[in-house]
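Workshop exercise sheet. Pairs work together: one partner reads the sequence aloud, the other fills in the structure field after running the prediction. Swap roles for the next sheet.
Pair: D.N. / O.F.
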Amino acid sequence: MIYLANDRKSRSKRPYGAVRAIVQQAEADGFDSIWLPDHLMYRNPGEPTQGSWECWTMLAALAEATHRVEIGTLVLNNSLRNPAILAKMATAVDEVSDGRLILGLGAGWNEPEYRSFGLPFDHRVSRFEEALQIIAPMLRDGHVDFQGRYYEARECEDLPRGPRPHGPPLMVGAEGPRMIKLAAQYGDAWNIGYMGAPDTMAGPMATIEAACRQVGRDPATLDVVPLIGLWFPELEPEKPRMFDDPLTGSVAQLAAAIRGYEELGIPHIIFQCYPYTPEALQLLTEAVRLYRAQIR
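Structure field:
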C-alpha cells in the first residue's frame, strides 16, 4: 500500500527535494510502495495550465533515493515513448532500484497534452496493443521481432538484462472492455480506479475474472491493484470531483477497510489522498499501523 508523491494541485510547484522527502518519509513510515503519475501538463477551460515533472526522470532519481519500497508508474502514457526504448528504460530503472520497479502502463487520455506536445491522439488502444506486443517480450524474454502498423522493433534485444530474469512486473491500467482484455492477456497485474470501500470492488472483480476466462487465463494469476480515492472531509469539506464514491472514515474504519481488501485476496492497494496534506498522510499512516498491529 502506498501514497503518491505528487498531486494535481501542487505537482507543478513541488521541487524534487520536497518529492524526495515525502517518499523517504513514506519508506520510513513503513509503506510498501510509492507511485508517480505520468503527465506532461493539465489544461482545462477557464483554468491555469498545471505542469508536471517528467515521470521517468523523477522515478529514476527516487530509485536511488530509496532502499526498500517498490517504485511504480501510475500509469505511464504509452504514446509518450517508443515502446522498445521504454522497455530498455524500465530495465535500467529496475537495475538502479535493485529490482523494485513495477511498470504501470496505460493508453493515455489527456488530449490537451497530446496536442501541445505533437502526439497522435487517434487509435490509442490499437497503438497500446502493439506496444504491449513489444514491451512484454522485451522485458520477459529480452528480445522481440515485431512489425506493426504503428510500431516496429526488428531483431531488438534488451541487453544487458536487469536484476530479475523476467524483468519487472507489468501492470496494465484499464477500464474499457478492450483495455481490460489486454490487461488479462499481457499484464502481471491490473489497475482500476477510483475505488472506495471494499464492496466497490464486486463489479470490477467480476469483470476482470470474465476477461481472464475469455483469454484462457486463470484469474488467480493476475493481481488486482485498485487505486483508492481517500477523502478526509474533516480536512477538506468539498468532495473531490475525481472521486465518485471515495473511502472515508476514522483511523479505525480505514484500518478495517484495508483488512477488507486483504480478505478479497487483493495483494496491493494504492491510496490517493484528498486533501494531499501532511495531516492527511499522517492519518493514513496511523491507519496502516493499526491494520498491521491487528493482523500480528
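Discussion prompt: The mean pLDDT is 94. What would you look at next?
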